[in-house]
Amino acid sequence: MTLSNQVAIVTGAGRAGKGIGRAIALALAKAGASVVISDFVPENADRVANEVITAGGKAIAITSDVTLSSDCEELVARTVNEFGRLDILINNAGITRDNLLLRMSEDDWDSVVNTNLKGAFLCTKAAARIMVKQRRGKIVNIASVMGIVGNAGQANYAASKGGIIALTKSVAKELGSRNININAVAPGFIQTVMTDALPEELRDRMREQVPLKRLGEPEDVANIVVFLCTEAASYLTGQVITIDGGLFM
Ligand SMILES: NC(=O)c1ccc[n+]([C@@H]2O[C@H](COP(=O)([O-])OP(=O)(O)OC[C@H]3O[C@@H](n4cnc5c(N)ncnc54)[C@H](O)[C@@H]3O)[C@@H](O)[C@H]2O)c1
Description:
alpha/beta
């Protein structure tokens, strides 16, 4: 299950500490891939790229905002310029702007859908041009269980994540004949900066609901993403793998 000689882009990978994108980048590099750490916060992308290099991997940082088609195209072009190919795209960049429907502003809706859904579309389109020519590629979209079951206070986020699942299935049907696999993962409660900010009591209640009796770690998501990028998963496309300790089954 090696990824040596392969080149991967991870969007939104700049969150140091507990980011899911960072964990995915580190895990892809450990499996042998050269990794492009992309984020719209330049110093964060640099920091994670340095972490990968310190851990013995190959990485470069590229600043890009996934909501801008010019940035997504430049991200792919610079990657191919630097490494000569592009094998793997992980659409991880995502934000939340939670509010109840009647209080949700149009701006809250637009910014979440633009980042989480349009961003994945723009990066997938830019990467697919190269992958179609190569007749080979793996794309993994980071969705969420909320995109499957919905969540009060997250109409924008859940719609964007449900949308990314439909995007995954449609592109799988379009690009399967070009040897491009595209799948989604739907994480449940993962311990990140976001969940760390919640009160301990709420985290205890969340943990109690999970059959495996623990919250997920970013590495729990990263391990499945790496598997989806390997040849071991070559007959899998258009699927959504829920990584939630059994919470929603
Ligand atoms: N944390 C969870 O419990 C959880 C659960 C399910 C799904 N997810 C999904 O996993 C992904 C990563 O989540 P996380 O918790 O690590 O979040 P995070 O906020 O720690 O990381 C998201 C990263 O995306 C970057 N980003 C935001 N907007 C961007 C843009 N327009 N262009 C480029 N980069 C941008 C941020 O700078 C940040 O580094 C997201 O898609 C999120 O929706 C998280």
